[in-house]
Amino acid sequence: MTKNKKIIIITIISAAILSALGITLYFVLNNGTQNKSNDSAVIAEKSELAQKVSENTHDIKTKNLIVLSSSPEITGSGASFKDGVLTISNGGTYEISGTLSDGYINVTAKDEVTLVLNNVNISNTDGCCIYSNDSKTLTVYTKSGSKNSLTDGGSYTNTDAKGAIFSNDDLVLDGEGKLTVNASYKHSVACDDEIVINKGEYDFTASFDGVHANEMITLISPKLIISAKGDGIQSDLSSVAVLGGSLNITTAGGSENAPAKQNNDFGGRWKTDYDTQYTESEESSDSPQSFKGIKAETSVEISGGDLMLDTYDDAVHSNSSVLLSGGSLDISAGDDAVHGDDYLTVSGGDIYVSNCYEGLEAGTIEINDGNIDITASDDGINAVEDESSSQDDMTNRAPFGGGFAEEGYGTLIISGGSIVIDAAGDGLDSNATIDISGGNTVVYGPENDGNGFLDYGTSCTVTGGTLTAGGSSGMAQATDDNGQNALMLYFDSVLSSSDKVSVKNSSGKEILQYQSEKSYNCVLFSSPELKAGDTVTLLINGEQRGKIEITDGVYYANVSDSGITEAQGGFGQMGMGSNRGGMDRGPVDMGMDRGDFGRPF
Asked: What is this structure's pTM?
């Protein structure tokens, strides 16, 4: 796995910030890597089942031994066999081995049941492989060194079972061996209540979802591979938490199979929402209608693990909130890399997105720490408007930047971390405000005049950290004058990947530099190093172009081979063409003097 950057960090999660955003913190992990043991995960009481699984050491020794065949050998009590069905009627632990060529395990016990799989192979032509109707908790445990395989039928006589492994109540997957599940009907693993996957190695292939539950899904430290035609992991009514382990998820053939998306609207959630249209009827459908990597109703929380997600739709999706506080995510997505309808918080971890439509998207996005590297065909980071707002209601709408959205909704907050954005659309996009108080943010913005490296509706305030952004000048926006000092530079010619723009302070120290693999004719620098009263030198490829005396606020300048020409600032919203009118147009006159909009033309 090749990444542009790989920086190992230790993250401390701010509970106060999360509480203020209304996000419930279920888990706290130490360093975001795979758990060495269950003790490295501190699990809050929100999930009593996950707490119990993480603390317990399974005693898999049992006198109930079953060797599967057309006429199984059964030692012990609580199990019986008839017409291809192995029935477990009593609670307890059962070690199972052998092959069942056309049948399944039916758990009817109401107490807790543990099935220890020791080189088991089960196939069922007209149903699931393991079914539990009413057990308190069903645990499927793979014995150390064992390889186990389950293959269901393309149709079920018992349609209450929604997957090759199905439980009406809580379900636990655990162990030290390997389990392969080939699901032709619906899901590989499904449960009407809660699922916990602790340890073990799993390879799931599914016609619908890899792992599907009505309630919470917790992954503690498994090695999990999922190839699903629907969602990789989905909680219908609750949340998904990833504490550690290794996850490799591909949905609907991956991002390369997704249709190319185009931004044919000014902001808003114009994209087809499979969840809204089809979720309620998906179980009765012949084919899946949602194709996300990890999806939940209330929250997705990732605090550890190594995740590789290649998805037809969003890689990580919540209908409410997403919290990323650790781990490593390597994402290629046909739509958003990470999407939360309401909140998205990044407090640590490494997020590398090699391909997506939009990178991070939510109503409110807060980045406190972490390493983020995103390549997007549209917006890199997008704080969007309230989904409930009507697109037909044009009152109180922001006139520029952020699209047609209710003014005041859509907030992007950056207080720390390392962020690199390569966006063909807008780099940092907010329907209302952008607030930057820390971190190091670099934006390689659009080459077209229809987008900008910054796009905001009401304000962009920088009070700390470093912001370096470049791209086309056609829709370029600067930061606000009431924040940290900044330089807004418009170049008389288009610069290319071989060109480096740099700024040196009066002592000769290089304090800022920008070099992109794309063409650009506008660069924005904001840094604490730009101190009022200091005189800085601007260079292109090491050649001096002139000096600028830094003043409070944003300094606008036209840059040519002959030097620097100061331009009037104060408009601060949209680059109405600059002195060239952008890269795709010729020089712009528009019949106006340069000062008509308080910006260069």
From this structure: 0.85
